[in-house]
Amino acid sequence: MERKTLIRNRNRRGPALAYGLPGALLLATVPWATGAPSPGMVGVPGWAALSLATTAVYALALVWALGDRFADEGDPAGPNDDRDAA
Amino acid sequence: MNVVDPVGLSIMSIYLLALIAIGFASRFARRENSLGDFYLGGRGLGTLVLFLTLYATQYSGLTLVGFAGQAYRSGFTFLVSVTFACSVIGGYVMIAPRLRTLSERHGFITIGDFIQHRYGSARLTAWTTGVFVFALATYVLSNLKAAGYVIEAASGGRIGMAAGIIGLSVLIAAYETLGGLRAVAWTDTLQGGVLCFGCAAAFFTIVDHYGWSDSMMQLATARPDFFAAPSGAQQTGWLSTLVLVMFGVSIYPHAVQRIYAAVSRRALLRSMQLMLLMPFITTLPMLAVGYIGAAHFPDLSQTQSEQVVFVVLGRLSETITALGPLVALLVCALLAAIMSTVDSALLAISSLVTQDLYARLRPGNSQEALTRLGKRFSWALMAALVGLAIALPQTLWRITEVKLEVLVQMAPAVFIGLHLPQVRARDIGWGLVIGLTVTLGVPLAATLTSTLAERPLGVHAGVWGLAANLGTVLWRDAHGPDDP
Questions:
Q1: Whole-angstrom distance, CA of residue B283 vs CA of residue B288
Q2: Residue A76 has what pLDDT?
Q3: In a 3-state reduction of DSSP, which class is residue B146?
């Protein structure tokens, strides 16, 4: 029983998985969708520039997802917030 | 090639001495002689120190030496390594908040503490600890080898690979045993700063001298294959590597130790958010250096290409003597990346063996005795790994893949353990056995027979192993016998 009470956010595991894996998979498949080499940006092939741009969007999404997940766990400051501020 | 002049050598000496000084300072900052203080720095790492230690630890010698070399060989398709680095944080999104909460409640020191708490099986804890120790030891090996490359290349061969590895290893073991995680984190702060600044300075200097557009035009002539879109097989390889990195790197025991060691959840959150910047200001510039190297030095052998950063800088320093300090700074940055990874992995192995194996097998030892044992074990292990690093003939990249493929078999124990309360120790244990069998069996069968590829359908054996592992856990959870 101890085990079950510790893991209390069962209904939130879906969002946790949703933030990470599909985003990463999407990134890896974008160049596939773009197909053949296209005119380059700053000397880099178009598909590579697009892939990097998508990675940047993914990174921003993860910034938000981290905050959201920590908020799910309760007070994001935690019990040692006074030490953190110091 | 001799890229470090006397001025540079002085800078490097000061840098290395500073690490020892930090080790002594952390020794005097010790609050108590306990495992929690030694292995988690008294659970007091604030945002900046935590961020820089996470950064310096995750960005190993491979990031700087190996990745630039891989970019040199693979072309623009290897830009996907920036995505790989981001995906590690995707893994943290799934595990860090929950692990942090549990560690606050139960005083975890190692990842084995979580496994023991979650599954209540000493046998599973011992098995998983063995897997973690193997993966970490391989990690240390690959980085020690990278250290050897750096020192040999930077000294123009005057300092041999073996001597360089031995010297750095003694230094690392010294400051680590002086102050534990506090020493490691504080030295990481210096190392992370040097790493970040060194990469940026080297990148801008190289781009300024060679010119990005000119280099890319030259590259289009010298290596037109660099510009081709990735093939389906390459993209399958990407996805496979992505799975390995996301679920493997995020559960490194030393990364989990830092989740426990944060002074607060807010400090941990901010540190991880800052980490998302680093692939763009560390990995990407190093890849760019690899591409510039390919444009101007297109005929390097595989071994030479692993030192492409030094090839490019070495040629520059021959014509611009004022570059000496900058070159030394980059060498320091490379050493920083390597040392910060090795010290963290070494400390994690020491904690796993002391806390999860020795303390459980022989309970009743005092915290002081266990801490002393952990320090002695660190020295003995380092000596053994130095011997292996000097003798082991494998390329850097291959060693990394072997390590990750084994380590990722632990992902179900952590990811499922945190999110599915009904899964039991036996399910995880069987999954681990099946996963490791596939992971190690596929390359073995590929070596013995010619009918099976080392990566069937372009997917790493470790990913096939993870699929079998996960399938076994979920099948047993659905159909296995109920608990008595």
A1: 9
A2: 42
A3: helix
Q: Nearest Cα to A70, choosing from A82, A78, A81, A60?
A: A78
Better-predicted residue by pLDDT, B3 or B29: B29
Alpha-carbon torsion B292, B297, B298, B304, what sign? negative
Cα B409 to the chain's mean position, in Å?
17
**Rounded CA separation B147/B333 (Å):** 11
Coil/strand/helix, residue A44: strand
What gap in Å lies between CA B332 and CA A60, rounded to an integer? 31
Q: pLDDT tens, B367-385?
A: 788 888 888 888 888 888 8
Who's near B47: CB < 8 A, 6+ residues apart?
A84, B266, B267, B270, B271, B274
Note whether B312 and B297 are within 8 A (CB). yes
CATH class of B6-396: mainly alpha
Is A8's pLDDT higher than 50?
A: no
- Using a CB-CB cut-off of 8 Å, the residues of chain A touching B279 are 55, 59
Report the 3 state secondary structure along B354-388.
HHHHHHHHCCCCCHHHHHHHHHHHHHHHHHHHHHH
User: With contact defined as beta carbons under 8 Å apart, do B39 and B351 qualify?
Assistant: yes
How many Cβ atoms are within 10 Å of B450's Cβ, its own excluded?
7
* Pair of tokens at residue B374: 């952990």
Backbone angles phi, psi at B154, to 5 degrees: -65, -30
Question: 3-class SS at B449?
Answer: coil
The tokens of B145 are what? 């080898």
Choose the closest CB to A66 out of B263, B272, B280: B272
What does DSSP assign to residue B77? G
Element holding B78 (H helix, E strand): none
- The rounded distance, in Å, linking the Cα atoms of B256 and A13 is 19
With beta carbons under 8 A apart, name residues in chain A contacting B281: none
Are residues B76 and A21, on separate chains, in Cβ contact within 8 Å?
Answer: no
- Unique residue bearing structure tokens 């030393």: B254
Q: Shortest Cα distance from A65 to chain B (angstroms)?
A: 7
Nearest CB neighbour to A62, from listed B44, B97, B276 = B276
Residue A79's SS3 state is coil
Distances (CA, A) of B356 to B106, B111, B248: 15, 9, 20
pTM for the whole structure? 0.85
Q: In angstroms, rounded to a whole number, what is the distance separating the alpha carbons of residues B12 and B325?
A: 9
- Rounded distance between C-alpha atoms, residue A32 and residue B140, angstroms: 35
Nearest to B116 by CA among B478, B461, B361: B361
Evaluate whether B313 touches B324 at the Cβ level (below 8 Å): no
Q: Which of A44-53, B48-57, B215-224 has the lowest mean pLDDT?
A: A44-53
Query: Is this complex's ipTM strictly greater than 0.90?
Result: no
Q: In chain B, where are the structural domains located?
A: 6-396, 420-484
Among the partner-chain residues A7, A42, A44, the one whose CB lies closest to the CB of B418 is A7
